[in-house]
């Protein structure tokens, strides 16, 4: 039952070339930077990543992206990541952009063993009808486009069928965890982390604080340990390293 491993490098040592990864985080909040760094050092590429976005400010998944290690991204937001946009438009990267709520539910459904579900999000658009550019040809044309999806009507309303997502591995970050893999996420860092963790066949969590079994209030646990296979304990320096994407001040 003790799922703690000695290092991040050991935790990702069996991630192979071409693996699929669900990765938690939103912007710079709740990103498993230490595990991503260990995966970068490992040198594997051809990765298929499922995450809300693909890193920001040259951190998180942006490290793997800049190194050419990512082949495909399923996500909702490109944002200010200029390298992400450049690779996509140049035809170097395949990108499946989907509504944010749909992404969240596809991850949750995959983890819950639900193969597919119907949602109204995207009905009447290319999300349902197909034709969204997944990969450009580098010359302005579309090399690969999204296929049409099944649409059905329930009680007079149309819904599009979306598939649940399962990945080979999941990388997440939690504020607290125990040796059994039960996790508590800090405030907004909860974002996509529980959902990504559910979707991975092998889920690795980096935790800022490790407690012994029984040290977490059961009612406070956000993700039960059944979804987590490996726990990496961060150093105090790693736990405190939290960057800010945008600073705002009041006059």
TrEMBL record:
List, in alphabetical order, the Gene Ontology terms for molecular function in this entry. Answer: succinyl-CoA:3-oxo-acid CoA-transferase activity
InterPro entries from the entry?
Answer: 3-oxoacid_CoA-transf_A (IPR012792), CoA_trans_fam_I (IPR004165), NagB/RpiA_transferase-like (IPR037171)
Q: Does the keyword Ligase apply?
A: no
Q: Which Pfam families match?
A: CoA_trans
Which UniProt keywords are listed?
Answer: Transferase
Give EC number(s), comma-separated: 2.8.3.5
Protein name, entry field:
3-oxoacid CoA-transferase subunit A
**Which organism was this protein described from?**
Streptomyces calvus
Higher taxonomy: Bacteria, Bacillati, Actinomycetota, Actinomycetes, Kitasatosporales
